[in-house]
Amino acid sequence: MSAKHKIVIVGGGFAGVYTALALEKIFPPGEDIEITLVNRENFFLFTPMLHEVAAGDLDLTNIVNPIRKLLKWVTFIEGQVEAIDLRGRRVVISHGFDGHPHEIRFDQIVLALGSTTQYFGLPGVEENALTMKSLSDAVKLRNRLIAILEAADTESSIEERRRLLSVVVAGAGFAGVETLASINDFLRKSLRFYPNVMSADLSLTLVHPGDTILTELGAGLGKYAQKKLEQRGIEVLGHSRVGSYDGDVVVLADGREIPAKTLLWTAGTMPHPLVASLPCDKEHGRLKVTAELAVPDWPGVWALGDCAVVPDLTPGNACPPTAQHGLRQGKVAAHNIAAHARGREFQTFNFKMIGQLATIGHRAGVARVFGVNVSGFMAWWMWRTIYLSKLPQLEKKIRVALDWTLDLLFSKDLCQFIDVRQGQKMDNNNLAHLHEKGMRNASRPGEEVASATIL
Questions:
Q1: Which residues of the chain have pLDDT under 50?
Q2: Number of neighbouring beta carbons within 10 Å of residue 340
């Protein structure tokens, strides 16, 4: 009996999971193929809806799918990838309660490691800011919002109360704008339950270096979205960058200061640190691949998603790191993995972006689909309809639809997922300890960017 052909997929984001799903369709269970997917968490996170968890619109369990329920016969291992040895054709992971090492051999490997947060070495930002890339980040932000409302309601100092209720978001891409719009709605709708907090006490600021927000959608939609945010009480500071943050004051690069107990950082990502250790050609820290998603000079090694520079054959540059690209790259990678194992012809990845959408709060959105600009309620309705259709598993679709329906009928849930003990200081380090002890701001292997647009 011949030895099984071993395929390892590293990362459980859009690229990794959709590669595994496509491979299950190509290879029947009885064939001499062994496929293993490794991910730090045992679930697939639907990142486009992450900001709705932070704002209390959705239950956190409804945007995650257990990987074991998604896959039929692919082997899944929950573990942390420690090393990838391309020459020795092995992956070293740590798993279990004691983090003991485990070695997995492979004939082919799919590198879908995702990305982590980039802080650019700015003083205090990594230590004190929140991020928006993982489920734990969304939970942490939700707890923070409720905690500052509770603290502000009993704070006698007007200055300190306004510092507590000041939220700064750095980055005007999809993640920053959608999250800020959602938490603005959450905070303002919650004020009626906090009699000592006035609307004038709230301060929400968006800091970004460009001319307009949501530049991916074009200047017209960006200006429309900015106008709507400003009408809802959000201050937008263009041509500005965060210089440092000590947990109390955001200092901009030009010296201006914004007192704020909360800084949400969505202004930069970088490839997963393991990518730097691989002996492959890179561009801006990401793995260079061919149009077939193959890593040059390494037969049987494939890279896709956020950690790879995938050629875009239509305009002639690189594909953006979005979910709609990642999941389609997974299907092409699966085809080429099978072709490599069977000695057949490879397929190139050639996908033209269908469109991009963003919500901007108050049941409004902006969208560019097939080159047509849409804004307002119709764009918001399109966002929800399209994303609901793309959410894996009927069970999750029903749960999300039910959550959205209940959100129309009832007020926001103000329960924290942890206890905030009296007498503890409300600085950022204590909040991080209270809400998510041991959780990291950086994303895990396989997580895709929260701003991903999936069509």
A1: 1, 420-451
A2: 19
